[in-house]
Amino acid sequence: MRQPKILTTIKTYDMNQFTADLIAGMTVAMVALPLSLAIAIASGADPSKGLVTAIVAGFVISALGG
Questions:
Q1: Most distant CA pair in the chain, distance
Q2: What is the DSSP letter of 11?
Q3: Which residues, 6 or more positions from 33, have their beta carbon under 8 angstroms from its beta carbon?
Q4: Mapped to the 3 state alphabet, what secondary structure does the chain carry?
Q5: How do residues 6-32 score in pLDDT, each as one tens digit?
Q6: What is the distance between the alpha carbons of residues 60 and 54, in angstroms, rounded to a whole number?
Q7: How crowded is the C-beta side of 42, counted as CA atoms within 13 Å?
Q8: CB–CB of 53/36 below 8 Å?
Q9: Which residues contact 54 (CB under 8 A, 6 or more apart)?
Q10: What would the pLDDT profile of 46-63 be if each residue is shown by its tens digit?
Q11: Which pLDDT score is estimated for 66?
Q12: How many other C-beta atoms lie within 10 A of the C-beta of residue 5?
């Protein structure tokens, strides 16, 4: 039976990896959120709709992604 990757890697996950993941997540957020606002404005939508779309898409991708 196949297991989710999180169950096989959590045993070796340490504070250094968590710090690297946290920095990577903050970097992605700094790029993705202003970009989502700009795309919403360019397409004629309200900037808040772009922000909500980016947040919802982030959760969906993290839930379904590998």
A1: 47
A2: G
A3: 51, 54
A4: CCCCHHHHHHHHCCHHHHHHHHHHHHHHHHHHHHHHHHHHHHCCCCHHHHHHHHHHHHHHHHHHCC
A5: 888 888 999 999 999 999 989 988 999
A6: 10
A7: 6
A8: yes
A9: 32, 33, 35, 36
A10: 999 999 999 998 889 888
A11: 56
A12: 9
Three-point CA angle 61, 38, 63, nearest 5°: 5
* pTM beyond 0.85, yes or no: no
The answer to whether residues 56 and 66 touch, using CB atoms and an 8 Å cutoff, is: no
Nearest of 30, 33, 24, 26 to residue 55 by alpha carbon: 33
Q: Which residues contact 38 (CB under 8 A, 6 or more apart)?
A: 50
Specify the amino acid at residue 61.
I
Per-residue tokens: 31: 């790029």
Tracing tokens 């700009």 back to the chain, one arrives at 38
